[in-house]
Amino acid sequence: MTTQILITIDTELAWRHFRPGENWHRLFDRSCEPAGVGISYQLELLRRHDLKACFFVDPMPALVFGLDPIRRMVAPVVEAGQEVQLHLHSFWHDVAAGEDEKPRFHLTDFDGPDQLRLIETASNLLIAAGAPSPVAFRSGSYAADSRTLGALRELGIHFDSSHNGAAAPWPSALPFAADLIDPVRDHGVNEIPVSLMRRRNGALRPLQLCAISSAEMQSAMRHAEAEDHGLVTIVSHSFELATRDGRRINQVVRKRFDGLIAFLAAHRSQFPTTSFTALDALPESSGSQPMEACPLQTAGRVAEQFWADARYERPATAATAIGGTPLSTLDLLPLVGL
To answer: Which SUPFAM superfamilies does the record associate with it (predicted)?
Structure first.
C-alpha cells in the first residue's frame, strides 16, 4: 500500500503577538512571514520540489481587522496552486466583542449552536478572502468535540483534522482513542487524525516539526510504510520556523522543514504528498499503531531541542520547553519533554 503524506500548515495571526488597539501589520509579519521563513518560504520550497500541502487558514481575525490580512494569507497559497482549508481560533470572536481580557480560547467553550455559527462565520470569511469553499477543518489548539463534528456535517464540511492524541482528552476532546491515527468516519464527517509517535513512557507526541527531530519524522514515515498505513498527517505552522518572538530564524526547526521537503522529494513514489480535495476515498487501513520512540533518537532530539532553545529562545522558555510544558495552549504545543 502506498502511504500518502498530508502536510498541514496552520496559518494564523498568533495570539502571543496581539496588542489591543494595534493595527494588524506587525502581527501579520510576526505570525505569517517571520524572519523570512513564513508562508512565502514554505510555498517556495514546495514549488521547487513539486510537492502538495494544505494551509489551514484562520480567517477569524477579520472580525477585528477586516479581510485584508486574511487576503494576504490566502492569495499566495491559491496562486501557488496549494490547498486552503478552514482553521478557527475562537478567541477572535470575543476580542471583536470587546472581551479581550478573558476571551474563550477553545471552540469547545461554546455550545453546539454557537460552534455552528462560529464555523459558518469563519467559512464565509475565508471564502470572502478569496479561498474556495472549504471541505476540511481544524480547530485552533485542536479544541473539538462531538458537537463540532455535528456542526461540520450540517455545514457540508466533509473532513476534520482536529484529533490529536497528544492533546487528548483536552483540549482535543473528540470521542476517539488517544492513539487513533487512521482516518475514520464519525457523525457523517471523515476524521483525519494528526499522526503520532509513542514515547517510552507511553505518552504520545504529534508528528509536528517543533515536536520531533528529522530522524524521528523519517522513521515515523518509514514505520507507516512498513505497517501499511494509508496516510500520515504532519503538522506545522506559518510561524514555526522562526523564534517565538518572530524576529529570527530558528535554524533547527527550519532545517527540519527543509529536511522533510527534501526527503519527500527524494522518495515521492513511496510517500506521495496529497491534499484533502484529492482524498476521494479514505485510505483503507485500521488498527494502525504509532511508531515506538527510539531511545537513541529521543536522546538526540532532546539534546537538539535543548541547544535550540538555549540558542534561539529566552532561558525561561528553554526551561519550560525541556520540562515538557507549553508556554500556553496557544503557543506551539512544543511537547519537547523526555
So the answer is: Glycoside hydrolase/deacetylase
276's grid cell? 484533502
Sequence-distant (6+) residues with CB within 8 A of 114 are none
Digit-coded pLDDT (tens) for 164-217:
999 999 999 999 999 999 999 999 999 999 999 999 888 999 999 999 999 999
Is residue 79 domain-resident? yes
- For 227, which DSSP code? T
Q: What are the C-alpha distances in Å from 150 to residues 31, 153, 155, 316? A: 31, 5, 9, 41
For residue 73, give the C-alpha cell.
494569507
Q: What's the number of domains the chain is made of?
A: 1
Q: Which domain holds residue 281?
A: 4-288
Confidence of residue 310 (pLDDT cuts 50, 70, 90): confident
Amino acid, single-letter form, for residue 70: I
- Residue 88 in 3-state DSSP? strand
* 316 within some domain: no
Task: Note whether 143 and 119 are within 8 A (CB).
Answer: no
CATH number, domain containing residue 260: 3.20.20.370
What pTM does this model have? 0.91
Residue 1 C-beta-side C-alpha neighbours within 13 Å:
19
Question: CA–CA separation, 305 vs 312, rounded Å?
Answer: 10
> What distance in Å separates the CA atoms of residue 302 and residue 263, rounded to the nearest whole number?
22
Closest listed residue to residue 62, CA positions, set 24, 98, 31: 24
Whether residue 160 lies inside any domain: the answer is yes
Looking up cell 535554524 gives 251
The residue-averaged pLDDT of 80-89 equals 98
| pLDDT of residue 319 exceeding 80 | no
Q: 81: how many CB neighbours lie within 10 A of its CB?
A: 10
Would residue 206 count as lying in a domain? yes
Say if residue 302 is exposed, middle or buried (CB neighbours under 10 Å; 0-12, 13-18, 19+): middle
pLDDT at 140 over 50: yes
